[in-house]
Amino acid sequence: MPARALSERAARAAxxxxxxxxxxxxxxxxxxxxxxxxxxxxxxxxxxLSSYRPREELAQAELTCSFVIPSDKEWPTALADLGPACxxxxxxxxxxxxxxxxxxxxxxxxxxxxxxxxxxxAHDFATALAEADHTVTATLAYGVDSxxxxxxxxxxxxxxxxxxxxxxxxxxxxxxxxxxxxSVLDGGGAxxxxxxxxxxxxxxxxxxxxxxxxxxxxxxxxxxxLDHVVAMYAAETAVDLHRxxxxxxxxxxxxxxxxxxxxxxxxxxNSPDPRLALALPHARVARAGDVADGDLLLAAVGEQGxxxxxxxxxxxxxxxxxxxxxxxxxxxxEPSEVVVLSQGxxxxxxxxxxxxxLLLIVSAQRLTDRPLEE
Length: 374
Hints:
This protein is of the alpha/beta class. The chain is built from 12 helices and 16 strands.
């Protein structure tokens, strides 16, 4: 009698327990997950895979949390932006809440040992986002991330936790953060992980989880980060995936060196204002010629992504005036294809743009509480 076929869920869980998605992308494009598992077992000279029991392991793990896969209605479709690195599945507590939470997710992340200013900013950003019905999304780690979860709870709103270990514990000290994880779940939130119950956190799981954190979100807020810490992986993934990224101003403290690098490279919006964070999830790309009066301009968009302005500003489009003698307009050689989006504010000259150039904007209709002074 032939062996019972392995379900897609069990096969994906087994593959995820042993391989990173990128290691399997080519095979999964040609074979089903169950077929890929069988192929890997046959080719495993160590015999370790043949001793693994996918059905039994899945059943045991699902006593703690659900394993959600791309064919499930709860699957976050935003993860498809990761391409070959898209997870094989997610371990989830609070599964039924996931579609609602990920649809409005905004990451608030940063240092585990932050400055007092960063704690204040994290609380302010998270409170404003939660009260505006965005889902505060963070890692449950000490410092900025746990402050963000606590602020959402204080506002009476659900949050989403992305953990770098199995969901049977919280990183880095399960007993210390168990109450915060319970608070997230009891408050209508959810917790997700790439890793099956029993998996401990490591450098590799922290980095991979930071990537998923950014991919799940509509925007990322980097409150304060020392360069090269885990939070920077989330910020850099936001850049790679063209997610809007806000970095609070660097303070000169080495703990904000990551923010300083991103801002110096014009890779993020520079603002300490929570009201700007409320606009960020609504950002979209538009032609300069289609920008309307009152739209908020955040960045120029090219093949390499967004090049953020030092100061975001409100657009007031005007037809190009060939007689304008400012130091910018006098350089225009094809005025019929140019629109002037600002006349002296925030700069001392006009702001002409080729009509087909692309800009990252927030529509005026979305700015119910203007984030910037005009």
